[in-house]
Amino acid sequence: MRVVGCFLQYNDKFVLVHRLSHKIDGDTWGLPGGKVEKDESDMDAIRRELFEETGYSAQDHELNKLNEHDFVSPRGDTFTYVTFQVLLDNHHDVIIETGAHSEYAWVTVDEADSMDNLIHGLHDLFRIIQFIK
Description:
By secondary structure, this protein is α+β, with helices and mostly antiparallel strands. The chain is built from three helices and seven strands.
């Protein structure tokens, strides 16, 4: 399985979305993103997910692929996580996907890393992509 996630950044902050408690990995904060669908490219998937989860319509030239690595979920699922970054020139008013998320927050990497309810693997991801050394 392939999963995509994106650091949608403005200045020194990026968006985290809070999953509804009844969803898989519920009551956790994570990057906008999700599963890559059959016959969908990683780029198509992250553009779709970003729009669904934040209302931001990213263009290909804005999407910077940061990394691709394998993770194992707490349930034992193995997946490849592909991380992207979009550096915004202007602040974006996030429109969350209310069927999946309860809220969003613009946070610095240090603020996010201090949270105890991040989705599994996000603390490690900050170090893998060297946002935190």
